[in-house]
Prior knowledge:
Glutaredoxin; four-stranded mixed sheet; 9 helices; globular
Amino acid sequence: MELIYVGDPMCSWCYGFGKELDLLVSRFPHLDLRIVVGGLRAGATDVLDDAGKQFRLQHWARVEQMSGLPFNRQGLLDRKGFVYDTEPICRAIVAARSLAPEATILAVFRALQHAFYVEALDTTDGMVLADAVARALKRQGIGLAAEQILGKWSSAAIIAETQADFALARSWNISSFPVLALRVGNELHALTTGYTTVDMLERRLSVLLESAETQG
Length: 216
């Protein structure tokens, strides 16, 4: 059994959900967490215009109200010529996953979210992403140079693995995020599609685990 989280670091609802997921993982330490990146706007080429910024700010306000997490609105408004392509940041998660234990990847995921939503960093830039991943892993006791991470991020193997994650999410008919499921054998049991509190998740997960133990 394992928890499977499908999300995108530049999805605002995934950002809001991060705190709840952290708490859930701490309450069920015996369950491994596997992260699959979904590619919310992977490969986008359109420049984010003022209408696009305002649309996102409306979502951010709702997420902030629900989650209590901070957003750097001015950082978004000040961006010039920004292409909201989420492939690079998803690929950074996959690169980290290839270099560090799976148990550390949620912390990396959340650090990259913080880099985008709070620090207002350009998380479509490879070096910016490599620096953020290196800092996140260092806090987990793993010392990797940003240049090493950048090399992995740039590799054909990681590009292909990222695309495989996107395809896997699509094969599960997942097109919006976050999604959290419990895998029991070859079966996936949905815990949530969208933002949900940790207490609700805990209740749903406890029922599924009890059922799995009864059937097992």
